[in-house]
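Appendix B. Raw example, untouched.
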Amino acid sequence: MRNEIVKKWGYIDTSGQIVIKPAFDSAADFSEGLAVVKVEWLRGYIDKSGEYAIPLRFQLAESFRDGIALVMENDKYGFIDKTGNYVIEPKFDNASGFSDGLALVMTEGRYGYIDRSGEFVIEPKYEAGGSFEDGVAKVFDNGRWMYINREDMEVDKPVKASVDNVFETTYHDGLAVVWVRKKCGYINNAGEQVIPPRYFQGKEFSEGLAAVLVKADAPSSEE
């Protein structure tokens, strides 16, 4: 019988050295010094040393933005600070992260918008909704989609410039992910290979580190 390779997510630095041991079933980019990781069915947050800053306890967790993060615990959504304490208690049936200073939340089957204090700015009355962007959000009610502003007034659809047929490589911390023969590595702005293609998967660099999927027992400088 063929042995199955056990793969885990860890983190590399910009030289390709594994600096956080591959021990996670999934791993997100670092944001504001912390990264969401998953082990089995629970999620928590690690710091750049690989230590848990917030233990594994959440069913879902998003990256920190402006000092707070959206999490789900005991089937309810709320928001925590970097110590893991709730700044907005987990009481919502669904929620999205803050955007434009407001977060979309659902309670009793209806969506509304809260501010960072957890108070409703727009009462939960919509059947569906999207995040605010540039002061406008898309909501669904009474059988139709429409756009509202922060005062909950209907407004015209925002007009955005569009660009077609543009393909570009996205660089973060001066490096971009590339794929060669089903393995990924990293190149610099000049197109030069900096980290050879040796990972099963790799994410963009953020704050000097990138999450990569490797063999669970991979040494620091090999796949």
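End of appendix B.
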